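Q: How do we represent a protein-ligand complex in a form that can be generated token by token?
A: Start from the inputs.
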Amino acid sequence: MKLKLWGTRGSIPSPGPSTIKYGGNTACIHIEGSKNECIILDAGTGIRPLGMELVEKCEFLPAIHLLISHTHWDHIQGLPFFEPFYFQDAKIDIKGPAHFLEEKMLKNILDVQMQHEFFPVSKEHLKANITYETLDETEFDIGNIHVKSLFSNHPTRSLIYHLTEKGKSIVYTGDHEPYYNLFDVGKESPSNETDDIFFDDTDTTVSNANGRFVNFIKGVDLLVIDCQYTPEEYPSLRRGFGHSSWNYCLDWMKEAGVKKMALTHHDPVRTDDDIDKMFDNIREAAEKKGIDPGKIVMAKEGVEIRI
Ligand SMILES: [Zn+2]
Ligand SMILES: [Zn+2]
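Then emit the structure tokens for the protein with zinc ion bound:
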């Protein structure tokens, strides 16, 4: 599989002179399989230049499989600007999780973006043959690529995708925060025995949920993981926002035996210099934990990784 990063920024596009190196576009990854399978993970603003390149490079557009991790803005904002939507011969299959409320299915959430209040071109102008499917935790094939999904810990329904082809695997977490004990927040000391039992039970549930995640990423060749925060920011200041910090990413990498890790979903306030400094700290911490720092990269727009 060949992976190319088209958007590495989290939350909101952050273009400008201070983000040229790592990029300002929001979440989007293109994966090409050995049989020219075309898979796109998330449709942040990075999907606009990707769509332009697909149209320009391909005489005939391949069947496009768009896997959405979740429908927060930074993961769908580029959709109306995805050029293949406007081509009659294009076949685009969109899969992603449904909202918690059943009537808000994936198609409705995407249609809303193209209402006149928000966008000048209506959905009637979309010429492509578009199909939609809402997913839970499941598995299926796209050509030779086997896909599995797992719910992440995020403040909406959000899926992590695991792709395998010819024994090589990639996991893209989308947005993910470590599971934690809700009763731990602001807790001083347990006041009585009943509280202790309740707290211990929840601790076990949390530990099992984190274990499921580690199991899902076990031994993967490439883990593209949400790493929005530093240990100074998370958990003390940002817990519950749905993102991870790099110290957790390192621990997961070691525990799961991940072979290579790309840290992405950069915070919009982070300049290139900030990310470089963050990377220095990450490499230093990795060495201390016995992880080869050469196996870790900061996700950078435009970079290709072959698996
Ligand atoms: Zn996000
Ligand atoms: Zn999100």
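Residues 193-216 form the longest helix (24 residues). Residues 10 and 282 are 19 Å apart (CA to CA).
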